[in-house]
Amino acid sequence: MRKIPLSKARIGKEEESSMVEALRSGWLTHGPKNKEFEEAFASYIGTKYAISMNSCASVLFAVIKAAGITGEVILPSFTFTASANAVVNAGAKPVFTDVDYDTCMLDPKSVEEAITPKTEAIMVVHFAGQAGPLKELKEIVDKHELLLIEDSAEAIGAEYNGKKTGSFGEGCFSFWPTKNMTTGEGGMLTTNNQKLAEQASLFVAHGIKKAVNPPHVGYRSAVLPGFNFRLSNMLAAIGVEQLKKLDAMNESRRIAAGWYNDRLSKILGITLPVEKPGRKHVYQMYTIKVAVDKRNTLVSALNNAGVEASVHFNPPVHLQDYYKKKYPAHLPITEKIAEEIVTLPMYPDITKEDISYVCDTIRANLA
Length: 367
Hints:
Elements: H1 13-25, H2 32-45, E1 49-53, H3 56-66, E2 72-76, H4 81-89, E3 93-97, H5 108-114, E4 119-125, H6 134-144, E5 147-151, E6 159-160, E7 163-164, E8 170-174, E9 187-191, H7 194-204, H8 233-264, E10 279-280, E11 286-289, H9 292-304, H10 321-326, H11 332-340, E12 341-344, H12 352-365
């Protein structure tokens, strides 16, 4: 039986050599490769600053804390729980709003309706490799003087009107192995805000700020209660090489999505992903929607056929045990999507033959 993974990172000799070089350099924690990675990433995204961390969850938390946000943060419930966890753990309140059915991302109208005098930020979660409604959200944050946080974990290299995600607000990226590029574990903050960058940097290394005129050798003084959010020099070394390959890997994903679209468009009962005008979709995931009464059966059939199909995200955050008690919300479109969505295998090196096998299996089980 054919085995097709849900995701598979493209790792080559370049990453191996770079990591060995970093290992032999003696810099086992934060080191020179971090600076190289950060500078290259900021240049790629188009921002003044980039700060590497150990995860996107840490980045999200650091942004909220660095910005001093303690009020309400509007975000979608159709996301991984890390988005909401960061809001709560940073001392703010999540306010869940509904999403657009076609894109599975924030509906600007719902966002506008949710704004109160306590609202301090909007977190857009770019879903599956496509940018959210950034024009409309920028207008809203500018109008109400709010912070725009871009959870770009699933959209490294995605574009909105020619600009990269993570350059419109405070960009929060993930390098988890399923993402468009990986360091194993890791994340990156991108921003044009010098004050926020400086403040966020303090959270990375225990809140210790380098003294200008230290009173003695080895002097270290915490200016705030920080954390250890550091990305190791070795993992940053992988990131340096992965970033060089990112555009090529994203193009491979786009080609694979075209193969899926061609085959699946001929099968009744499937809603295909939509690429909105002016946006460049980089397909971190390839998701379809099917009828509620067929979704679970289809996913099981795919799994039984050796296809690692999955579901993102069911239950949505507002229906998870902790959140449904403390932050209840009525989100009919979010709940409908969560019951219909199917995530199919997607990675740069997936073959046309593998995609044909996935599509044939779907056809056989949707009849």
